[in-house]
Design a protein that fits this description.
The complex is a heterodimer. By secondary structure, chain A is mostly helical. Chain A contains 4 helices and no strands. Chain A has 2 domains: 30 residues; 59 residues, no CATH class. Chain B has one domain. Classes of the chains: A mainly alpha, B mainly alpha.
């Protein structure tokens, strides 16, 4: 067995061990504990609030706008953080670059606003 | 203000070489800004703006071309972007396709009563992505360009809001496209792992000077890159999306997919495989060989049984991708020049053919069955004649530009001693000719008996608006002229053979 594969063997052994340990404890627990199910006990846990409706619930399609807006700002932040940490080193060039980048992303938001996508209909 | 800090050396930018990209991206951003600010734009403005941007790119390519021919290829932005003859050649093709698509879209959007700024913005952005792909000197930049190109096209496919097929096409294209992007990205990762670089020049340098004892990772990288790019150019067996998407998407968008996306995809294939992996061509050539055979045969044979003209043209565009792969497989300068010539000719053929389909499709964009074309020769002789020329061009009949294109790639294959491939390509060209002849027979030899059938008379083809009319006229004229005098295009393609310059 090559050195490369041997290093993976460690991973396989540890993975197997992890599955075995968790499986054993859960299995033993289910053998030992008494099982008296009542309606309250098998109900879905929903932060202490009485569950409403079915388990199969759909989110409103109109949330997609928020998902898109989230991506817009998420991507922005991914680039702004490292840039901000080294802003002084990048100097004027970096400043202008980031201004253009933010302008284009803001344009996306502006477009969505003008298209009345931000209003909840 | 920043005086006391140590500064990072920012990479050198050759702004003049970026002009085509900046024009396209700038035009898109400006158009979107204006469209957001002004509630009701005049209907003609976005189309005119896009056409002006496309023409500006065409004009700006000329001095760049002279500069590159005189001073040689250059790379800049820390070696991530390069400019050479092939970059400018493909940029010019994309600009032509943008102008043609904009001309078709204007008529289409008016006829279908669709809101119209987004299509143009996306078209310009998609073209900008294509230019990035054609000038990429780094695998990551290539991926960036590919995504910019593709994401815009996914949305464009869905733009016909009231046609469910359009939405379906977009979803299929998006899901499969995202899948293919993942393949490509994995391929890039493996090539990076094997060579330690993402810059094309550095990869090429590494591969030509190093003997790898274990090349499994590199081979897997080649394979995955080929899958990812093969999907974009619709090569069999990664073609399954093409017929459905071509059938469902708005017809002008299909013209862009066939002309623009294919040109950008092949520009990337040439840069990555022929140019960067050139010293290992013995390893990837068999794979491209198989892909080319499957694609020419698959595209031609399956096209025969189609009854929908848009699907038929989709399969024929797959067959064209196969011929282009024949040229890629040669892995020589001659093959590259042949591929670029073919791309030039195919851009004209695709724009012209889909312009005719746009016109015949009629309001609702759903009259694409071959029945819609029956007897068109008698009723609309000019339109039918133009379509006949374009179909003969696609079939590769002599004295049309299609012959020059097919001759080029097959000659390159025989020069590379791939006789079997050249033979199979010629056989499938003959099979594909049957497809085009079938449409021709429908155009001229089958009458629809209008007097017998009132309902058939009701679906008379409307006269072509001026936009499609210009596209059809220009493409037919160029197909005929280049068929008789192919010299200028072939010489341009010869001068456009790509060069890698390290940064």
């Amino acid at each position: 067995m090559s050195e490369f594969l041997r290093s993976w063997l460690v991973l396989v052994v540890f993975g197997g061990l992890a599955v075995a340990v968790v499986g054993t404890f859960l299995g033993l627990g289910s053998l030992l504990r008494p099982q008296r199910a009542t309606e309250q006990k098998v109900m879905n846990y929903e932060s202490g609030v009485d569950p409403q409706g079915d388990r199969w619930s759909q989110s409103n399609i109109r949330y997609y706008v928020f998902a898109l807006m989230f991506v817009l700002f998420d991507v922005e932040v991914v680039f702004i953080f490292p840039w901000a940490a080294r802003l002084e080193a990048y100097g004027m060039f970096g400043l202008v670059e980031m201004a253009i980048f933010i302008f284009i992303l803001a344009l996306g938001l502006f477009y969505a606003w003008r298209k009345r996508l931000l209003r909840w209909i | 203000m920043f005086a006391q800090a140590e500064t990072v050396a920012t990479p050198e930018v050759l702004w003049w070489a970026l002009v085509p990209l900046l024009v396209l991206a700038g035009a898109a951003v400006l158009l979107l800004t204006v469209a957001s600010l002004v509630r009701r734009l005049p209907e003609w403005l976005p189309a005119a703006w896009t056409i002006v941007a496309g023409l500006a790119v065409l004009v700006s390519v000329v001095p760049l071309w002279n500069e590159v021919q005189d001073d040689g290829a250059r790379s800049f932005l820390a070696g991530a972007v390069g400019i050479d003859g092939s970059t400018l050649f493909v940029t010019a093709l994309l600009a032509v396709a943008v102008v043609a698509t904009a001309l078709l879209s204007r008529a289409y959007l008016t006829r279908e009563d669709l809101p119209g700024v987004e299509l143009y913005v996306l078209l310009l952005l998609s073209a900008a992505g294509g230019v990035v792909m054609a000038s990429a000197n780094d695998l990551i930049v290539l991926f960036l360009g590919l995504e910019l190109l593709s994401i815009a096209v996914y949305v464009m496919a869905a733009l016909h809001l009231r046609r469910i097929q359009s939405q379906e096409a977009a979803l299929k294209y998006f899901v499969l496209g995202a899948f293919a992007s993942a393949f490509l990205l994995y391929g890039i990762a493996l090539v990076y792992g094997a060579t330690g670089a993402t810059g094309l020049a550095r990869i090429a340098g590494y591969l030509s000077t190093t003997i790898l004892l274990e090349d499994g990772m590199l081979m897997a990288g080649f394979g995955l890159l080929l899958v990812g790019l093969g999907f974009k150019v619709a090569a069999v067996p990664f073609h399954a999306w093409a017929p459905d998407v071509y059938q469902g998407a708005p017809t002008p968008v299909v013209a862009w997919m066939a002309a623009g996306v294919k040109a950008a995809g092949f520009a990337a294939l040439l840069r990555v495989f022929v140019l960067t992996f050139g010293s290992w061509s013995g390893e990837w050539q068999p794979a491209v060989w198989g892909l080319a055979i499957l694609t020419v045969l698959g595209g031609s044979v399956v096209a025969v049984v189609q009854t929908d003209v848009k699907r038929m043209l989709a399969y024929s565009s797959i067959a064209h991708a196969g011929f282009l792969l024949v040229g890629v497989q040669a892995a020589s300068d001659r093959g590259t020049a042949a591929v670029l010539t073919y791309l030039g000719v195919y851009t004209l053929l695709a724009c012209g053919s889909f312009a005719v389909v746009t016109v015949v499709g009629g309001a609702g964009d759903d009259r694409h069955g071959i029945d819609a074309y029956r007897g068109l020769g008698a009723r609309r002789p000019w339109l039918a004649g133009a379509f006949a020329v374009l179909l003969l061009g696609q079939a590769g009949v002599p004295f049309t530009a299609g012959f020059v294109a097919k001759f080029g790639v097959i000659a390159a294959a025989t020069e590379g001693h791939s006789y079997a491939l050249a033979g199979i390509a010629m056989v499938s060209a003959a099979v594909a000719a049957f497809v085009y002849l079938r449409i021709l027979v429908a155009l001229y030899m089958e009458d629809r008996h209008l007097e017998d059938d009132d309902e058939a008379g009701a679906v008379e083809v409307d006269p072509a608006p001026w936009g499609p009319r210009i596209v059809i006229t220009v493409s037919v004229a160029l197909v005929l002229v280049l068929g008789v005098v192919p010299g200028p295009l072939v010489d341009l393609a010869k001068d456009a053979v790509p060069v890698l310059v390290g940064g």
